[in-house]
Design brief:
The chain contains 16 helices and 21 strands. The protein has helices at about 20-40, 65-70, 80-95, 100-115, 120-145, 150-160, 170-185, 255-280, 295-300, 310-320, 375-400, 405-425, 425-440, 440-450, 455-465, 495-510; strands spanning about 20, 50-55, 60-65, 145, 185, 190, 195-200, 210, 210-215, 225-235, 285, 305, 325, 340-350, 350-360, 365-370, 400-405, 475, 480-485, 490-495, 515-520. Strands 9, 10, 11, 12, 13, 14 and 15 form a 7-stranded mixed beta sheet that branches. The chain has a 3-stranded antiparallel beta sheet with strand order 4-17-20. Strands 7-16-8 form a 3-stranded mixed beta sheet.
Length: about 550
């Protein structure tokens, strides 16, 4: 860049800064977003494949959960990171539909490429996409049906289909619906109140639910009772040990008797803690931090059941379920702080012991113990159940579901194509592109099931156009035919579809509006050998000793 009247270049950007503009920037961003969508595309649908992810320290994750895959892979490109955010948002809002949202975002951007090539301005495309997304949500609301208790199990089975749950989707769905209904309060399902504990051993069908809590901890002392009836539970967020000073301090003891009195004083402090627990009437103690050996001994003598080093989420769940209060100072414990449960018991689960709290004061907390042959199996079952619990919760809260297996996408596509002609102008082109993009979902479901995608789409469109209940027709993956998915019990919560379309449209619009990418050069890693101040050659440091 040269100034007027001189040949002197004007340097605006730092040396080494990379810059791409206009179509080059747009196509680069679109290519990155499509690459993310392609990474998870093969996992979509009931016949989707799994991916094995190996992290830098060799830990293996086997999953077909879109958000798990995208969290595990280290995405560098900024536009690709924006697409990963779509999956995270979808997961936070609905728990399921993460792969759908990402694949749809990738396809919306792919469809926009031909429009940008034809010199349709990105602002026109984004306006068209906004209109299309709003109309799509309107159509989804129109074709949704009221949910009922029978539908909840169908929603759960649909969410689990295609996950690695060993064909136990019916069995697990019963547990999930029971758990969601147990924690439902005034039409709201607090899925955080459903705790999941994993134990390797047995098979998936050995999993079970208890109306209460399961804590993956055991008694700290073998002489403590294994079962406590009519439990009065103290919950401590501090350690049951002598506190160490915050500053380094030395105590100088000259006489042996002074040493003994110092030790006696420490022992008295520990005994006072246990006396306080007994005085308050507690017979069960859950401590978030450590418990001194001497405290364990005194509590065992007093017949108190104690577990230590509980997770923050576990101790909060116990407080919620039993009506107890978290206490930060042991000597401040009062009888009114104690939680109540009918029974606290240590039971063997597989080769380990776990603590079961049943008959709670506030039964709006349940636990599901997941069993399975290997660590990888139960990890994937937990991920699948997390998704299914969230979608059942969403179905209970919203009370509306749509047919699955590509039915809503095809119906929305057909109605958007008709809507586009009423809008007119260049936005019409963008709305038509949006409607074509929706085809990617049934197309990919068919492709992943080994069915001819073109035939499948043709059959679906014909069924939607020709049947009275065409809007409910989706793809039967057993024979590639279009069938009524409500009759086949394949249903999904309305919110999952609405959120997927809105999130995908938003991220596509954000990426399309970027026409200039300015990337600063990263600083090279510091090399101590090249810097004398860090002991480089000749300074008697690393180099000087070699």
């Amino acid at each position: 860049m040269y100034g007027s009247g001189s040949n002197q270049p004007i340097i605006v950007l730092k040396e080494g800064t990379e810059r791409s503009k206009d179509k080059e920037a747009q196509f680069n961003n679109i290519a990155a977003a499509k690459a993310v969508a392609d990474a998870v595309r093969s996992t979509l649908g009931p016949k989707g494949m799994d991916k094995m992810l190996v992290d830098s320290i060799g830990d293996v994750t086997v999953t077909n959960d879109g958000v798990t895959i995208l969290k595990e892979i280290d995405v560098q490109h900024p536009a690709a990171k924006m697409v990963v955010e779509v999956a995270k948002t979808q997961d936070d809002e609905c728990g399921d539909g993460t792969t759908t949202a990402v694949v749809l975002a990738g396809e919306l951007l792919k469809q926009s490429e031909s429009l940008i090539d034809a010199n349709v301005h990105p602002t026109v495309i984004t306006n068209g996409y906004k209109l299309a997304a709003a109309k799509a949500v309107e159509v989804l609301n129109d074709i949704a049906v009221q949910s009922n208790d029978d539908m909840l199990k169908k929603v759960s089975v649909t969410a689990l289909t295609g996950k690695s749950v060993g064909g136990e989707d019916e069995f697990l769905s019963d547990l999930i619906v029971k758990a969601c209904k147990a924690v439902e309060e005034n039409g709201v399902v607090d899925t955080e109140s459903i705790l999941m504990e994993k134990k390797v051993g047995g098979v998936i069908s050995d999993s079970y639910m208890i109306e209460g809590l399961v804590i993956d901890k055991q008694r700290v002392h073998p002489r403590m009772p294994k079962v406590i009836k009519n439990a009065k539970i103290a919950l401590f967020t501090t350690q049951m040990e002598n506190k160490k000073t915050e500053v380094d301090a030395q105590i100088s003891i000259k006489a042996p008797s002074a040493m003994q009195s110092f030790l006696d004083q420490e022992q008295e402090n520990l005994k006072a803690m246990v006396d306080k627990v007994v005085e308050a009437g507690a017979n069960v103690v859950f401590c978030q931090k450590g418990v001194d050996d001497l405290v364990q001994h005194y509590m065992a003598k007093a017949g108190i059941f104690c577990c230590r080093r509980l997770k923050q989420s576990d101790i909060e769940a116990v407080a919620k379920a039993t009506g107890g209060k978290l206490v930060g100072e042991i000597m401040e414990l009062k009888p009114s702080d104690l939680g109540v449960a009918e029974q606290v018991e240590e039971r063997d689960v597989g080769t380990d012991s776990m603590t079961f709290i049943t008959g709670c004061k506030n039964p709006k907390a349940v636990s599901i113990v997941i069993r399975g042959g290997t660590e990888h199996v139960i990890d994937e079952v937990e991920r699948a159940m997390y998704d299914a619990i969230r979608v059942v919760g969403v179905a209970i809260e919203d009370g509306k579901v749509v047919a699955g297996a590509g039915a809503p996408e095809i119906e929305v596509e057909l109605r958007l194509a008709k809507y586009a002609s009423t809008v007119g102008g260049r936005e019409q082109l963008a709305i038509e592109a949006f409607s074509r993009a929706l085809e990617i979902i049934p197309w990919t479901i068919a492709e992943n099931a080994g069915i001819d995608s073109i035939d499948a789409i043709i059959k679906l469109k014909a069924a939607h156009e020709m049947n009275e209940n065409g809007k409910y027709f989706g793809l039967n993956l057993a024979n590639g035919e279009a069938v009524d998915m409500l009759a086949e019990d394949v249903v999904e919560p309305l919110r999952v579809k609405v959120q997927a379309i809105n999130s995908a449209a938003e991220v596509a619009n954000m990426i399309l509006r970027i026409d200039d990418v300015i990337a600063s050069r990263r600083a090279p890693p510091m090399n101590p050998m090249a810097d004398p101040s860090l002991g480089g050659p000749g300074m008697g440091g690393i180099g000087g000793m070699m």
